[in-house]
Amino acid sequence: MFGLLQLIFVVMFCIASGIIIFTVIHGISTWNKNNHSPRLTVPAKVVAKRMEVDSHYHGNSGGMTGMSTDTTYYVTFQVESGDRMELSVDDSEYGMLVEGDEGKLTFQGSRYLGFEQ
Length: 117
Known about the structure:
Elements (H helix, E strand, L loop, with lengths): L1 H35 L2 E21 L5 E15 L4 E6 L1 H6 L5 E7 L2 E6 L1
Antiparallel strand pairs: 1-2, 1-4, 2-3, 4-5
């Protein structure tokens, strides 16, 4: 029985380590790809907005639980060719953009750099 528990622990540790390593490599790869992409400024229109809220529950030694949330803001832009791209934006940019706004979108790869009306 003790050998089986050790095996399960080793397998779970390897799976968790693999997921962490994959996530780090994927993040570095995206960052590197964005850095090597050209900065482009194109006419675009805001066609949609959405936000994603992740909730995290935390327990503590006093028996009480706490909760924190992370919100990620996304805006979908449509360029002249009809192609659409969804980019993550800061909360201040999200609040200033309205569906239907037209202007110049500046981006680098999947990195949002700005929108001027």
